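Ticket #4471: complex job returned nothing on first submit. Input attached below:
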Amino acid sequence: MPKDRSEKVRVTIDGRSIDAEKGKSILEVARECGIEIPSLCYHPGLESFGACRLCVVEITKPGWEGWKKLVTSCLYPVEEELIIDTRSEEVRENRSVVLDLLLARVPESDVIRQLAAEYGIHDTSYTKREDADTCIMCTICVRVCDAIGANAIATLSRGPDKYVDVPDKDACIGCLACALSCPTNAIPFEEFVNGKRKIWGREFDLVYDEISHEPIGTPEQIDHFAEKSGLPKEYFLKSDKVRKKETAVTFARVQF
Amino acid sequence: MSAALSFKNPEALLAYAEKVKKYRQQRTMEIRVCAGPGCIARGGREIFSAIKATIEKNKKELKKKNLEVGVKFEAKCTGCHGLCEAGPVVTFEPSKLFYSKVKIKDAEEIVEKTVLNDEIIKRLLFKSCDSRGGDLIKKYTDIRFYALQTKVALRNVGVVDPSNLDDFIAEDGFKAFVKALTEMSPDDVIEEIEKSGLRGRGGAGFSTGKKWRSAKRVKQDRVWIICNGDEGDPGAFMDRAIMEGDPYSVIEGLLIGAYALGATDGFIYVRHEYPLAVKHLQMAINTLEKAGLLGKNILGTGMTFNLKISRGGGAFVCGESSALMRSLEGKVGEPRAKYIRSVEKGLLDQPTVLNNVETFTCVPAIIDKGSSWFASIGPKSSTGTKAFSLVGKVKNTGLVEVPMGRTLREIIFDIGGGIIDDRPFKAVQTGGPSGGCLPVDKLDLPVDFDTLSRAGAMMGSGGMIVMDDRTCMVDIADYFIRFLIGESCGKCVPCREGLRQVHELLDRIIRGDGELDDLKKIDRLCHTMEVASLCALGKSAPYPVTSTIKYFRDEYMAHIEEKKCPAGVCKSLVKYDINKDCIGCLICKKQCPVDAISGENKKLHVIDQDKCIVCGICYEVCPVDTVDIISGGEIVNRRELEVVNP
Ligand SMILES: Cc1cc2nc3c(=O)[nH]c(=O)nc-3n(C[C@H](O)[C@H](O)[C@H](O)COP(=O)(O)O)c2cc1C
Ligand code: FES
Ligand code: FES
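Support reply: We reran it on our side without changes. The output follows.
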């Protein structure tokens, strides 16, 4: 649905009055005016998911007689007269517990350790997970892979045992989108070992740009993007740099 | 009679109803064999077949006695009669005679003695547990369990044969729907439901009328109507009993809802583990499609309503509204985080009304008898009746329905007959796995939505688990947490990680490694789970823990400070000892699975604590009760019942 650009709502975030675009989430609006709200499962290119609960903020409205409500800012749409507090005690308390829980889940993750430290947590108060990796189950990888159309990654099982995996290895196109969007670098991959790329236990060939000799991607990835976009495959056989150069030449020709 | 029925208009249906009722007036005897969830497991269906076969054999005899089969006499298989504890149950109309614990081999005797010769088989009468003597009770109307109930949602369950449309019509089935169609506008229906004060029976207790009205306000061509029959609470079977025992009432409720909302399509989402409910609902749908009560041009009025059954995703969380709708869309049944209500954007992002089975079943009753009748039952803010499945350490386990506002004591002691073996009552858990546990001094609380929430428990869908003094409240809290760990979808951090850590902390206390600080940690964690979880599963998951800490704090403290489990349950904190009254009978020694007991005939036996695995077999088998449970240095077995029930 196209957003009605003209419609604005007036909200207050941490005491600042802001004209916000209707339809946007509190998180988006706050970030646009430089108010930082921590997030882990939010990804600007994907639909909000609301899983990590780190982005919680407190809201109230003039008619609510002081009653406040904790909401997830990545999901909650801005509304007229909304008064948002991104740093209240209740907000900090719940973020602390969430980070403490995450620290118990991924004690080795630098990203989580740093975030937790900002909330004064240096060691988790809970029981650490044994053999912990650094996956926090934000599922950005699953959703990115889904958005690309490869649908190779899925969550399996449920509850605390839930994990992320590639049930059908053949579906993976080795594009690295998952690994590069992971907020905690939990998806290991290797490149240029014997001219190959390794991810999710699979080895992919790499295609190089004929002119610049830069690596472009895997053959599977190039085929997939060509098919999905409807563009000729040749388009994807060039590295970004070469493509930019060619575009510059084309424009030069058009203009002069 | 109903095989090839088809009603061209409302009048035709009403006329047919008159005909059926008139024909049935000739009936002088009816046998109702229970095939509800409890009785079917103990052979209810086979008993029915045996009775049928005997009737077939005695056809001539019956006719001679003026009991012509199909006219004056009928035997039918029905849904749950409620008193599952006494099952398999067989009842007689109009005499109200009640037979309990019936066996297949009793079939012949029942027909020959009771049917043909009016003779009561004493052996099959229900023994009352109200008085210690155990009076034999003939009529079910004289059994306190039944006498104290008011049936609205369960009005036809145990009364009608769920596969027989005539049976339903004879009980005024579709009368309410016809009334809505012919005498009321869709808005009248919504107003009537609003005025009745009906609140959703599936958990949250949201006003049904309000929900319908908000869906109606959304400007969209299409609105969906869905019945939630996912019922995943362990021990709960109210919705199952209704869907299996009275499928037509559920559908009539949906039809009235569809008429009010202008919905043309609907679903009944049935729990995966309920094949019989699916079967009975499907049979009913097929019959109604042929009869002109479902599909296109219903009763010739131009109304269209297509109803389909969808099998549940097989997880507790699939019953949650957004997860259920995802599952219906063919996606994984996980709750979706959103701040848009499903009445606006539900199934396929279109306005959707989701109500519970029991909620829909109340609807025809309200339309038929009027909103003021319904509103006159129970307190103002929680009108009508509520069905409960009463399970656990209570004498009369089964399905009950009472007016809202009855006290827990009335339900557990008067209807439920009290605690098994007359042991002391300890707690009752209401509201399913994530409900709260209430102690003895809350027994006089009226059972309604608001009172229960205020007490830290909840109405939930109506599960009621009764616990006696041999239940350890820390252990039970951990039991529910473990159930919820298995059922959490694992999407959000507070629920997924929080449940795991609450379990770790409780487990420490149970093992005897708990510290005072752990209770504070649990408190903090529970708060975050409650306010920051994504769906109601995580938000309510802490209740079993917070309520037990609130009401049974001493028990937590005993585990933590004295390393003692007062109920003698937590294995790491108890040991078994044989006292000096031992008669040396060798029984425990022989039964001990790890040979931990030594001692000779007629000599004191001794348990080797290093070998003992605390299985409790010696405690169970000792014929003279000389095995003691020791915890925190004290004897904690409660053989003698010092505390008498209040
Ligand atoms: C984890 C979870 C499980 C649920 N299971 C059920 C269920 O089995 N049946 C049901 O009617 N409602 C269930 N609910 C409640 C539904 O989300 C919803 O509120 C209800 O179906 C609405 O109907 P009502 O207004 O008639 O109660 C569940 C909720 C949660 C959070
Ligand atoms: S960023 Fe909002 S819940 Fe994760
Ligand atoms: S199943 Fe027969 S009485 Fe409940």
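Chain A has a mean pLDDT of 92. Closing as resolved unless it happens again.
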